[in-house]
Amino acid sequence: MRVDVKELLEGNVERKTLEYEESPELMEGLSFKDLPYVHLTLKKLDRKIILSFYVKAVVLLECSRCLQLYPQPLEFSYQEVYSEEPFSMIGELTEEDFKFTIENNVIDVSNSVRENIIINLPIKPLCNLDCKGLCPVCGENLNDRDCNCNPKDIFINLDF
Fold this sequence. Notes:
It contains two helices and seven strands, in the order E-H-E-E-E-E-E-E-H. By secondary structure, it is mostly beta strands. It folds into two domains: 2-129, no CATH class; 132-160, no CATH class. The strands form two sheets. The chain has a five-stranded mixed sheet with strand order 2-3-4-5-6, covered by helices on one side. Strand 4 and strand 5 form a beta hairpin. The longest helix is centred in the C-terminal third of the chain and has 10 residues, at 110-119. The radius of gyration is 23 Å and the shape is elongated. The protein starts with a strand and ends in a 41-residue tail after the last helix.
């Protein structure tokens, strides 16, 4: 989503609010049950624009135990600071160095939304906390049915 911030920069308005669903084409590498809903508030502060994001989505993830796809709800907020001044780094990093540059009175926020969705994904996705996973011998999904395998059979063909 490309946001025109010309009115904010010229001082015609101090605040702007947008609500939209993010495009699936811009969310490369992610699958969704429900596309990301984004509520975005832009506020001018001196020569900077503060963007406050609220994102809600349902991402399809693969369970790390049973390998089944499951819907993972996500809901989070974050802020970013954009500036008309180009980024520069002299000496040590400060909070000012973590701002983004506005180009041609437009801010493209799609990549920011995608990156923050990825950051908010669970490190070890689980379809549920009680997921039994796969049988290490036959590969059966133990959530669907039990098998008669003995876990010690895994080492039957190994010589120690």
